[in-house]
Protein backbone atom coordinates (compact mmCIF):
# COMPACT_ATOMS: atom_id res chain seq x y z
CA UNK A 1 0.00 0.00 0.00
CA UNK A 2 1.50 3.36 -0.97
CA UNK A 3 1.33 6.56 1.11
CA UNK A 4 -1.79 7.99 -0.54
CA UNK A 5 -3.65 4.66 -0.20
CA UNK A 6 -2.62 4.37 3.45
CA UNK A 7 -3.67 7.97 4.12
CA UNK A 8 -7.06 7.53 2.43
CA UNK A 9 -7.69 4.23 4.21
CA UNK A 10 -6.93 5.74 7.63
CA UNK A 11 -8.85 8.91 6.80
CA UNK A 12 -11.99 6.99 5.74
CA UNK A 13 -11.78 4.52 8.62
CA UNK A 14 -11.40 7.28 11.20
CA UNK A 15 -13.70 9.67 9.25
CA UNK A 16 -10.99 12.24 9.78
CA UNK A 17 -8.74 14.71 7.97
CA UNK A 18 -7.00 15.60 11.25
CA UNK A 19 -3.25 15.11 11.61
CA UNK A 20 -1.96 15.29 15.19
CA UNK A 21 1.39 17.09 15.33
CA UNK A 22 3.89 15.78 17.88
CA UNK A 23 5.99 18.74 19.02
CA UNK A 24 6.79 17.83 22.65
CA UNK A 25 8.28 20.60 24.81
CA UNK A 26 9.78 19.48 28.15
CA UNK A 27 8.67 22.71 29.88
CA UNK A 28 5.02 22.07 28.99
CA UNK A 29 4.72 18.50 30.26
CA UNK A 30 2.37 17.84 33.17
CA UNK A 31 3.95 18.05 36.64
CA UNK A 32 4.07 14.29 37.25
CA UNK A 33 6.04 13.69 34.03
CA UNK A 34 8.40 16.55 34.82
CA UNK A 35 9.62 14.50 37.83
CA UNK A 36 10.89 11.79 35.44
CA UNK A 37 14.08 11.85 33.33
CA UNK A 38 13.25 13.98 30.30
CA UNK A 39 13.74 11.26 27.66
CA UNK A 40 11.37 8.76 29.22
CA UNK A 41 8.93 11.56 30.09
CA UNK A 42 8.70 12.64 26.45
CA UNK A 43 8.28 9.06 25.24
CA UNK A 44 5.47 8.52 27.77
CA UNK A 45 3.83 11.85 26.94
CA UNK A 46 3.82 11.12 23.20
CA UNK A 47 2.70 7.50 23.70
CA UNK A 48 -0.25 8.67 25.81
CA UNK A 49 -1.17 11.41 23.33
CA UNK A 50 -0.99 8.95 20.41
CA UNK A 51 -3.13 6.34 22.18
CA UNK A 52 -5.72 8.95 23.21
CA UNK A 53 -5.99 10.75 19.85
CA UNK A 54 -5.53 7.86 17.37
CA UNK A 55 -9.31 7.27 17.03
CA UNK A 56 -9.65 10.80 15.61
CA UNK A 57 -6.49 11.05 13.48
CA UNK A 58 -5.70 10.28 9.84
CA UNK A 59 -1.96 10.86 10.45
CA UNK A 60 0.64 11.79 13.06
CA UNK A 61 3.39 14.32 12.36
CA UNK A 62 6.39 14.34 14.72
CA UNK A 63 8.59 17.39 14.11
CA UNK A 64 12.28 16.44 14.24
CA UNK A 65 13.33 19.72 15.89
CA UNK A 66 11.69 18.71 19.17
CA UNK A 67 13.61 15.42 19.21
CA UNK A 68 16.97 16.66 17.91
CA UNK A 69 17.03 19.38 20.59
CA UNK A 70 17.21 16.64 23.23
CA UNK A 71 20.72 15.66 22.11
CA UNK A 72 21.96 12.29 20.88
CA UNK A 73 19.27 10.31 22.73
CA UNK A 74 16.59 12.41 21.04
CA UNK A 75 16.66 10.25 17.93
CA UNK A 76 16.04 7.17 20.06
CA UNK A 77 13.04 9.02 21.50
CA UNK A 78 11.90 9.86 17.95
CA UNK A 79 12.13 6.19 16.98
CA UNK A 80 10.08 5.09 19.98
CA UNK A 81 7.45 7.71 19.21
CA UNK A 82 7.21 6.61 15.56
CA UNK A 83 6.83 3.00 16.75
CA UNK A 84 4.00 4.00 19.10
CA UNK A 85 1.79 5.04 16.17
CA UNK A 86 -0.72 2.29 15.25
CA UNK A 87 0.40 0.50 12.06
CA UNK A 88 -2.63 1.61 10.04
CA UNK A 89 -2.02 5.35 10.60
CA UNK A 90 0.64 7.08 8.49
CA UNK A 91 3.56 8.89 10.15
CA UNK A 92 4.78 12.09 8.48
CA UNK A 93 8.30 13.01 9.59
CA UNK A 94 8.35 16.81 9.66
CA UNK A 95 12.01 17.32 8.79
CA UNK A 96 11.97 20.00 6.04
CA UNK A 97 15.20 18.66 4.55
CA UNK A 98 16.72 19.49 1.16
CA UNK A 99 20.30 18.97 -0.08
CA UNK A 100 22.47 17.73 -2.96
CA UNK A 101 21.92 14.21 -4.31
CA UNK A 102 24.05 11.95 -2.11
CA UNK A 103 23.09 13.84 1.05
CA UNK A 104 19.43 13.73 0.03
CA UNK A 105 19.83 9.97 -0.48
CA UNK A 106 21.04 9.64 3.11
CA UNK A 107 18.09 11.73 4.36
CA UNK A 108 15.62 9.63 2.36
CA UNK A 109 17.11 6.42 3.73
CA UNK A 110 17.04 7.88 7.27
CA UNK A 111 13.34 8.67 7.30
CA UNK A 112 11.98 5.91 5.08
CA UNK A 113 14.21 2.98 6.07
CA UNK A 114 15.95 3.69 9.40
CA UNK A 115 12.83 5.09 11.05
CA UNK A 116 10.17 3.56 8.78
CA UNK A 117 8.16 6.77 8.34
CA UNK A 118 5.49 6.92 5.64
CA UNK A 119 6.19 10.48 4.44
CA UNK A 120 8.59 13.35 4.99
CA UNK A 121 8.43 17.13 4.53
CA UNK A 122 11.04 18.45 2.09
CA UNK A 123 12.20 21.90 1.07
CA UNK A 124 12.18 22.10 -2.76
CA UNK A 125 14.50 25.13 -2.96
CA UNK A 126 17.45 23.10 -4.30
CA UNK A 127 15.44 21.69 -7.19
CA UNK A 128 14.56 18.40 -8.87
CA UNK A 129 17.81 16.50 -8.25
CA UNK A 130 17.61 17.23 -4.50
CA UNK A 131 14.11 15.76 -4.38
CA UNK A 132 14.71 12.78 -6.72
CA UNK A 133 16.21 10.45 -4.05
CA UNK A 134 12.99 10.76 -2.04
CA UNK A 135 10.79 10.16 -5.09
CA UNK A 136 12.61 6.88 -5.77
CA UNK A 137 10.72 5.50 -2.77
CA UNK A 138 7.52 5.08 -4.77
CA UNK A 139 5.44 3.85 -1.82
CA UNK A 140 6.45 6.73 0.46
CA UNK A 141 5.17 10.30 0.45
CA UNK A 142 7.35 13.33 -0.29
CA UNK A 143 5.59 16.50 0.86
CA UNK A 144 7.13 19.67 -0.56
CA UNK A 145 6.90 23.07 1.10
CA UNK A 146 4.85 25.28 -1.21
CA UNK A 147 3.26 28.19 0.69
CA UNK A 148 4.08 28.01 4.38
CA UNK A 149 1.95 29.26 7.29
CA UNK A 150 4.34 31.85 8.75
CA UNK A 151 4.16 35.63 8.15
CA UNK A 152 7.55 35.62 6.37
CA UNK A 153 6.26 33.12 3.80
CA UNK A 154 5.59 36.07 1.51
CA UNK A 155 9.25 37.22 1.51
CA UNK A 156 10.30 34.54 -0.98
CA UNK A 157 7.28 32.40 -1.83
CA UNK A 158 5.22 35.33 -3.16
CA UNK A 159 7.92 36.63 -5.53
CA UNK A 160 6.70 36.82 -9.11
CA UNK A 161 8.69 34.65 -11.49
CA UNK A 162 8.15 33.24 -14.97
CA UNK A 163 6.82 29.72 -15.20
CA UNK A 164 7.93 27.32 -17.97
CA UNK A 165 5.41 28.85 -20.37
CA UNK A 166 6.75 32.37 -19.72
CA UNK A 167 3.75 33.53 -17.65
CA UNK A 168 4.43 35.59 -14.53
CA UNK A 169 3.24 33.75 -11.42
CA UNK A 170 3.94 33.64 -7.72
CA UNK A 171 6.83 31.37 -6.84
CA UNK A 172 4.48 29.15 -4.80
CA UNK A 173 2.34 28.59 -7.92
CA UNK A 174 5.44 27.65 -9.92
CA UNK A 175 6.45 25.24 -7.13
CA UNK A 176 2.98 23.66 -7.31
CA UNK A 177 3.27 23.33 -11.11
CA UNK A 178 6.75 21.80 -10.84
CA UNK A 179 5.72 19.31 -8.16
CA UNK A 180 2.74 18.36 -10.32
CA UNK A 181 5.25 17.47 -13.08
CA UNK A 182 7.44 15.50 -10.63
CA UNK A 183 4.47 13.43 -9.47
CA UNK A 184 4.70 10.66 -12.08
CA UNK A 185 4.59 7.95 -9.36
CA UNK A 186 1.77 9.62 -7.42
CA UNK A 187 3.99 9.99 -4.35
CA UNK A 188 4.24 13.80 -4.07
CA UNK A 189 2.31 16.12 -1.82
CA UNK A 190 2.48 19.78 -0.85
CA UNK A 191 2.64 21.74 2.39
CA UNK A 192 0.44 24.86 2.49
CA UNK A 193 -0.44 26.90 5.57
CA UNK A 194 -4.03 27.08 6.80
CA UNK A 195 -3.35 30.76 7.48
CA UNK A 196 -3.54 31.52 3.72
CA UNK A 197 -6.79 30.01 2.41
CA UNK A 198 -6.79 32.03 -0.82
CA UNK A 199 -3.32 30.79 -1.78
CA UNK A 200 -4.38 27.30 -0.72
CA UNK A 201 -7.35 27.50 -3.08
CA UNK A 202 -5.09 28.48 -5.99
CA UNK A 203 -2.68 25.66 -5.21
CA UNK A 204 -5.48 23.08 -4.96
CA UNK A 205 -6.62 24.20 -8.43
CA UNK A 206 -3.13 23.45 -9.81
CA UNK A 207 -2.72 20.11 -8.00
CA UNK A 208 -6.24 18.71 -8.00
CA UNK A 209 -5.35 15.19 -6.86
CA UNK A 210 -2.37 15.65 -4.57
CA UNK A 211 -2.40 15.32 -0.78
CA UNK A 212 -1.85 18.70 0.88
CA UNK A 213 -0.53 18.93 4.42
CA UNK A 214 -2.16 22.00 5.99
CA UNK A 215 -0.73 23.19 9.32
CA UNK A 216 -1.68 26.51 10.91
CA UNK A 217 -5.07 25.89 12.55
CA UNK A 218 -5.18 25.98 16.35
CA UNK A 219 -2.20 27.79 17.91
CA UNK A 220 -1.43 29.80 14.73
CA UNK A 221 -5.04 30.93 14.41
CA UNK A 222 -5.77 29.81 10.82
CA UNK A 223 -9.45 29.79 9.83
CA UNK A 224 -10.33 26.09 9.99
CA UNK A 225 -13.46 26.25 7.85
CA UNK A 226 -11.80 28.32 5.12
CA UNK A 227 -8.73 26.05 5.10
CA UNK A 228 -10.79 22.87 4.85
CA UNK A 229 -12.97 24.20 2.06
CA UNK A 230 -9.99 25.51 0.09
CA UNK A 231 -7.80 22.48 0.75
CA UNK A 232 -9.89 19.37 0.09
CA UNK A 233 -10.00 17.69 -3.33
CA UNK A 234 -13.18 17.24 -5.37
CA UNK A 235 -14.15 14.26 -3.17
CA UNK A 236 -13.66 16.22 0.05
CA UNK A 237 -10.44 14.30 0.83
CA UNK A 238 -6.64 14.51 0.61
CA UNK A 239 -6.34 17.52 2.90
CA UNK A 240 -4.24 16.69 5.97
CA UNK A 241 -5.23 19.34 8.49
CA UNK A 242 -2.51 19.44 11.13
CA UNK A 243 -2.59 20.79 14.68
CA UNK A 244 0.12 20.36 17.31
CA UNK A 245 0.08 22.66 20.38
CA UNK A 246 -3.70 23.10 20.58
CA UNK A 247 -4.04 19.34 21.02
CA UNK A 248 -0.84 18.46 22.91
CA UNK A 249 -1.33 21.14 25.55
CA UNK A 250 -5.14 21.22 25.71
CA UNK A 251 -4.46 20.65 29.41
CA UNK A 252 -1.13 20.91 31.16
CA UNK A 253 -2.56 18.94 34.08
CA UNK A 254 -2.67 15.21 34.73
CA UNK A 255 -5.70 14.89 32.45
CA UNK A 256 -3.58 15.92 29.43
CA UNK A 257 -4.35 12.79 27.40
CA UNK A 258 -8.14 12.98 27.92
CA UNK A 259 -8.05 16.71 27.13
CA UNK A 260 -6.01 16.03 23.98
CA UNK A 261 -8.51 13.37 22.92
CA UNK A 262 -11.42 15.77 23.47
CA UNK A 263 -9.69 18.53 21.49
CA UNK A 264 -8.76 16.12 18.68
CA UNK A 265 -12.32 14.87 18.49
CA UNK A 266 -13.72 18.42 18.51
CA UNK A 267 -11.30 19.49 15.76
CA UNK A 268 -12.05 16.38 13.67
CA UNK A 269 -15.76 17.11 13.97
CA UNK A 270 -15.32 20.79 13.04
CA UNK A 271 -13.32 19.73 9.98
CA UNK A 272 -16.06 17.28 8.97
CA UNK A 273 -18.73 19.94 9.45
CA UNK A 274 -16.77 22.28 7.15
CA UNK A 275 -16.43 19.46 4.58
CA UNK A 276 -20.18 18.86 4.62
CA UNK A 277 -20.98 22.54 4.27
CA UNK A 278 -18.94 22.60 1.07
CA UNK A 279 -21.05 19.80 -0.53
O1 LIG B 1 5.79 21.46 7.58
C1 LIG B 1 5.03 21.76 8.52
O2 LIG B 1 4.41 20.92 9.14
C2 LIG B 1 4.78 23.19 8.77
C3 LIG B 1 4.71 24.01 7.66
C4 LIG B 1 4.20 25.32 7.81
O3 LIG B 1 4.03 26.04 6.84
N1 LIG B 1 3.86 25.74 9.05
C5 LIG B 1 3.96 24.94 10.16
O4 LIG B 1 3.59 25.41 11.25
N2 LIG B 1 4.49 23.69 10.04
C6 LIG B 1 4.70 22.84 11.24
O5 LIG B 1 3.43 22.49 11.78
C7 LIG B 1 3.47 22.54 13.21
C8 LIG B 1 2.50 23.60 13.69
O6 LIG B 1 2.33 23.51 15.06
P1 LIG B 1 1.12 24.25 15.83
O7 LIG B 1 1.16 25.67 15.41
O8 LIG B 1 1.46 24.04 17.27
O9 LIG B 1 -0.15 23.56 15.42
C9 LIG B 1 4.92 22.79 13.59
O10 LIG B 1 5.58 21.56 13.78
C10 LIG B 1 5.48 23.51 12.37
O11 LIG B 1 6.86 23.27 12.20
Automatic annotation (TrEMBL):
Keywords: Decarboxylase, Lyase, Pyrimidine biosynthesis
Keyword Lyase in annotation: yes
Pathway in which the depicted protein is active: Pyrimidine metabolism; UMP biosynthesis via de novo pathway; UMP from orotate: step 2/2
Reaction catalysis annotation: orotidine 5'-phosphate + H(+) = UMP + CO2
InterPro entries: Aldolase_TIM, OMPdecase_AS, OMPdecase_type-2, OMPdeCOase_dom, RibuloseP-bd_barrel
Superkingdom of the source species: Bacteria
SUPFAM superfamilies the record matches: Ribulose-phoshate binding barrel (SSF51366)
Residues in Orotidine 5'-phosphate decarboxylase domain copies: 17-260
Enzyme class, first EC level, given as a word: lyase
GO BP of this protein: 'de novo' pyrimidine nucleobase biosynthetic process; 'de novo' UMP biosynthetic process
Catalytic residues as annotated in Swiss-Prot or TrEMBL: 96
E.C. designation(s): 4.1.1.23
GO molecular function: orotidine-5'-phosphate decarboxylase activity
A Pfam family: OMPdecase
Keyword 4Fe-4S: no
Family according to the record: Belongs to the OMP decarboxylase family. Type 2 subfamily.
Protein name: Orotidine 5'-phosphate decarboxylase
Gene: pyrF
